[in-house]
Write the structure tokens for this entry.
Amino acid sequence: MPLFAFGGAMAATGLVILTARFAQTTGAAHLVLAGVATAFVVGSLGNVLIIVADPRAVASVVFWMLGGFGFAQWGNLGVPAAALLGCGLVFMANARQLNGLAMGDETATTLGIPVGTLRTLLLVTSALLTGVMVAVSGMIGFVGLMMPHIARLMVGGDNRLVLPAAAILGALFLVVADIAARTLAAPNDIPIGVVTGLVGGLFFVWLLRRAR
């Protein structure tokens, strides 16, 4: 499953890049917009598959799409741990260049950073890590959006500190969210993606208010 999840993540990543190139844009903001469009298309195709699928399998698929650790077993953690270690090393090795990339493509280029090559490397690495993790836990939203913001508030903008801080904060947050998901409606489990989505939505409302 992690192998096929990585293949799906790479296909989606390739579609995002092709969409951005078709629109003749390469900036980070345009990549995000291309990603949103791709997410809607792929999500719609996934919903079609759910509609035509075996009804006996739909419940487990929907639970997996909402995210949770109910299907995770200790014996399944070898591949995710290896992916986390390998991809984490790639991110940390390029943390200094990420600082330059955060200042914009033109500034990064003047600093001697190969913007296109670096962005492709990071996209592929992110697709690998995301695909493997989603294969194990399902789609748990907002964690990757919230934790870097909180990490920057705590340690500043240097990605050499932000990356490990965001990883640790994300892990701690997921543990707390999993406890809440298992206890709020005991003996039933609430999908952890529901908990993180609720907290994430409120967090971004607060963030917008703070930015104003």
Observations:
- The chain has ten helices and no strands.
- The mean pLDDT is 84.
- The longest helix spans residues 28-52.
- The CA atoms of residues 16 and 34 lie 5 Å apart.
